[in-house]
Fold each of these.
Amino acid sequence: MTKDDLIAYAQALPKAELHLHIEGSLEPEMLFKLAQRNKVDIPFKSVEEIRAAYEFSNLQDFLDIYYQGMNVLRTEEDFFDLTMAYLNRARADNVRHAEIFFDPQGHTERGVSFDTAISGIVTALSMAKAQFGMTAKLIMCFLRHLPEEDAFKTLEQAENWLDRIEGVGLDSSEVGHPPSKFERVFKAARERGLKTVAHAGEEGPPDYVHEALDLLAVDRLDHGNRSLEDDALTARLAKEEMTLTVCPLSNLKLCVVDAMTAHPLKRMLDLDLRATVNSDDPSYFGGYVSDNFKAVIEALPLTREDVKTLAKNSFLGSFLSEGEKRAQLAAIETV
Ligand SMILES: Nc1ncnc2[nH]cnc12
Ligand SMILES: [Zn+2]
């Protein structure tokens, strides 16, 4: 199979996306439009100027512009439009199921209520299900650069929405904010029946991955790249069939890898890790799920079987029911 054939195969496969920050799908065109609609001042005169600002040398560089960008999101309608645009775009890549992060504290700390944000998002999720059968689950993330006490306040604000929230996650500036800082609030989330996931080993050391497993009892690990520096940890992740939500274009844009040819995805698969391919913040990192598949297929010696495994892993690692997983795995076999 040629690389072009493999890219077409990856595009055609039914897939789940498990690592997508909805605020990171805010395209420059929508950012510009919402700034005008809501009369919000932004330091850019054009869509081209916004795009030109998307050059990062590490995670914090990106986060600074990501939090600035989300400042144009003010109303329920803004969150609806944002979410609907992502779901339509993901659908074009044959994403059949998405587990979507949102950052409530990125909104509440600038005066936009938790209810405003989540109402717009869940309305779009329901509409996508009704209109084109795409399923989605919502994961609310705690910002790890803020105190645990603030995360507890966010969990309280979520109380009336627990039937629409699948789990909690942990994102933002990793180094200096280890998972141990959030052990109590993750325990409280689990007691409410929520699933748990956490970004770990993106920039942070393997110890942070150990903490995410041992102290937060995560059901899934976001990124996890630096786990590979620790052989015992790698063996444990394989044995426990822990899903890793890997984000190749994000890793390249944030300088987690020097070049796509140096990306560890193929190594992860060869080590029997349950790796998946995801877009993280597609509007900032240059592409959606199929663009991420294309980038790794072009740069790495991935086989047809590897690509199929990645698609299967995306459903196996999802929070769908066993029956729903079986149906999606069967659909993969027909491509
Ligand atoms: N890749 C990432 N890592 C940490 N926090 C984030 N928030 C949005 N994208 C993120
Ligand atoms: Zn992320």
Amino acid sequence: MPSDLSENPAPARNFPIFDLSRFEQADAAGRRALGAEVDAICRSTGFLAISGHSVPRPVIDAVWRKAHAFFDLPAEVKEKARAPYPGYPYGYLGPGVEALAKSKGQDTPPDLKESFNGGPLSVPEGLDDAQALAFCYAATIWPEEPAGFRAAWEAYYRAMEDLAGRIMRVFAAALDLRETFFDKTIDRPVSALRALNYPQTHVAPQPGQLRAGAHTDYGSLTILLPQPGSSGLQIFTPEGDWREVPPLDGAFVINIGDLMARWTNDRWVSTLHRVVNSDGSAARRQSLAFFHQPNWHQEIACIPSCLAPGESPRYEPVFSGPYLMSKFQATVKPAA
Ligand SMILES: O=C(O)CCC(=O)C(=O)O
Ligand SMILES: [Fe+2]
């Protein structure tokens, strides 16, 4: 685990940008070639930007504004939408609740952030798994204000679910699989959307305390929208140093998560990343993170074509939903 918390690294040179519309309009040979580019990126860091995504600007702007207005509310108002007990996945998680580095076994002070979290927009018909109903399909605790929050949130959630499905087709092409390979594994996804607010800080953080501690994401892929022009998101490169993700106006930053690494037998890497606060006095920063997660019951076992001859799978198969639940619950402060 790297620990150079005070380092102020340079922006990532040549941060890759992938034009999704170009891929979708290409013929079979073009798609294979573009897929190969994505394969190379995912073997190296698994972090890239997506342009040509066609997510309407008003959908993005609306959720951004509503989240900003929500975080501006007094603490006691935000607390009304609080997750009812530690380990409950949705609703408002106030400052001091989560330490992402704990998912990596690092005992750090809590992250300097607050978040609002929401789950799937509906429960699939006939689903009766008690754990799934109690965790991924638990109710989102909606805030009463600002007006229009829920409508804006749901529109953005839908747009992200759709975008994630399109990116998973790129991933299938990148892995030399038929492009619909993942479709059935993500047709009842248990994805979560998280709005993050990192308040302005005036005092030095505690030793080891960051805005978001070093972690990997848990699922198939994450679609991030960092505040335009903001800094602080860093990835741990294959060369072994922290690199800042540059601001990329109009593009989403995506990264693959642990389940994609497991699926591909570590051909693709789920890269460690974090959000730092420079020198203890950092400006407020907001972001949106959509954590795309395969169906609750989906078994994630090594894709056979990701095994070289004579190689054996590095991981035991896991089920998507229970895996997510165990990772999430490791990061929250237990009840006092
Ligand atoms: O806020 C960001 O830019 C990244 C947050 C993040 O990595 C996470 O919440 O998993
Ligand atoms: Fe993350």
Amino acid sequence: MSENTTEEQGAAPSRRKVIGWGGAGLALGAAAAGGAVALTRDGDHTAPVADSGGAVPFHGPHQAGIATAVQDRLHFASFDVKTKDRDELIQLLKDWTRAAERMTAGAEVGEGAYGGLPEAPPDDTGEALGLKPSRLTLTIGFGPSLFDGRFGLKDKRPGALVELPKFPGDNLDPARSGGDICVQACADDPQVAVHAIRNLARIGFGKVAVRWSQLGFGKTSSTTPDAQTPRNLFGFKDGTRNIAGTETDRLAKHVWVSGKDAEGAAAWMDGGSYLVARRIRMNVETWDRTPLSEQEDIFGRDKKEGAPVGKAKEHDEPFLKAMKPDSHVRLAHPDSNNGATILRRGYSFTDGTDGLGRLDAGLFFLAYMKDVRTGFIPVQTSLAKNDALNEYTQHVGSALFAVPPGVRDKDDWWGRALFA
Ligand SMILES: C=CC1=C(C)c2cc3[nH]c(cc4nc(cc5[nH]c(cc1n2)c(C)c5CCC(=O)O)C(CCC(=O)O)=C4C)c(C)c3C=C
Ligand SMILES: [Fe+2]
């Protein structure tokens, strides 16, 4: 990775260059460009650390943060693009890519958090100094509104990037929905995830503005078959029958865009995916007054083991007809939806109380798929109409994004094929 990315593209010279520190950053840049090489964030910009601290490779055919083993924490941000200048947007995506390369490798943004010109604000905000990469992944997506004509992208809008229909029971807040660009930051350390979004927002100042954001904890899905399945805020194991990050065949079939799905307007999506984000409020107080047997009927699984009705073990094959017709698992199962299969990657959230003495808590549902028209939409259409769980949940935010393929190398950048 070049040390002077911004400078080469015509922006102001870097502070380190001005004061003659160019060599140190080159070592860092070269290491970061190589992928999962962890770097110190303690101000010694030159030294790769021996313990990787869990750096996830940034470069590859697919973006990290989809099939990657789910990290503990989430900071998700949806941005509105404020600039009307296509070239300025392209430059921002390049700058974001270079910053993302560094942060996912555990390095500071740009010239770092200190040591530069005292007259200028530091490039990095500093709160991640001394923290490990913590398996940080940064995943970008482009919303339908980005293709409205402002940036000459109308004829690049894929057919799969539809407006989601209004489902029965939806109570969507526009201030928590939509957005031109999203960035999903996942990490095992919340401060690392928050630092990443904050620094991207800072780089984008004047060009993009955060429309809404969501913090998440307690992953509600597993993409690692051998790991213990996490529990959601209703106390049930969640993610039992998810697609595992190691199941390359199922990922190719249900998650990655390829073949005929990557033709015409969607050619730039080859290797990408589609992301549905739903903020789902969970009425935990009502749930906590619900008898155990009713809770188990609602999901179609038992609370302790997570086994499907009539079976003993969590990973036993569900027998759908043994479940109540309105049970969540029966309705969401691929066999009830023409084979529709999605990769779930959601997180729990609590955002204080709602003014009525109830927790503002729920599931920030994230799901990746090859095509929402054959994935999320049929499943949610069925759930919204019939799911017994609806008595305890409400969808209050919604967004859909086209997630481009991965950044191949240090010369590539987020969205290059889209803007080509
Ligand atoms: C449209 C897709 C889905 C929404 C929205 C959704 C909301 C939601 N789910 C739970 C809890 C559980 N879901 C479980 C399984 C499950 N859920 C979906 C889809 C949506 N869920 C699918 C496709 C599946 C798998 C079905 C199958 O193949 O058997 C489970 C059971 C354990 C598991 O397999 O993961 C739980 C528990 C909540 C609380 C919720 C909204 C708040
Ligand atoms: Fe579910």
